[in-house]
């Protein structure tokens, strides 16, 4: 009985794929898989270098400042949207 169930399930799945293929065929959708060229990745890795301590600290400070500003902006918007309606 399990073989029959598996066969029925396979037929159902293939039937759904056929319907989808027919619909996509009607829409003339052309989907191409992205191409991966490993030479580009190797070239980038060869050009990459470890940042100096000064560069790392500068990037860290800027990132922390950006996160803090976005957090404060979100908090201000939150306060306006929750506390301001209560005042009226």
Give the gist of this structure:
With 88 residues, the chain is an all-alpha fold. It is built from three helices and no strands.
Count of β-strands = 0
Beta-sheet strand percentage? under 5%
What is the molecular shape?
Answer: flat
> Structural class per helix/strand content?
mainly alpha
How much helicity do the residues have?
over 70%
Counting structural domains, the number is 2
Mean pLDDT: 79
Are there runs of 5+ residues with pLDDT below 50, and where?
none
Query: Number of DSSP helices?
Result: 3
Rg result:
28 Å
Secondary structure: elements and pairs:
Layout: H1 2-27, H2 38-47, H3 53-87
Q: What this model shows, in words?
A:
One of its GO terms (molecular function) is protein transmembrane transporter activity. It is a single-pass membrane protein. InterPro entries: Prot_translocase_SecE_dom_sf, Translocase_Sec61-g, Translocase_SecE/Sec61-g. The chain has 88 residues and is an all-alpha fold. The chain has two domains: 1-31; 36-88. The protein has three helices and no strands. The chain has helices at residues 2-27, 38-47, 53-87. The N and C termini lie far apart (69 Å).
């Amino acid at each position: 009985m399990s073989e029959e169930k598996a066969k029925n399930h396979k037929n159902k799945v293939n039937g759904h794929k056929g319907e989808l293929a027919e619909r996509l065929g009607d829409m003339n959708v052309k989907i191409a898989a992205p191409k991966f060229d490993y030479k580009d990745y190797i070239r980038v890795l060869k050009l990459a270098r470890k940042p100096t301590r000064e560069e790392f600290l500068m990037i860290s400070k800027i990132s922390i400042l950006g996160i803090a500003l976005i957090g404060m902006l979100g908090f201000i918007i939150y306060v306006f949207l929750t506390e301001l309606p209560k005042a009226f």
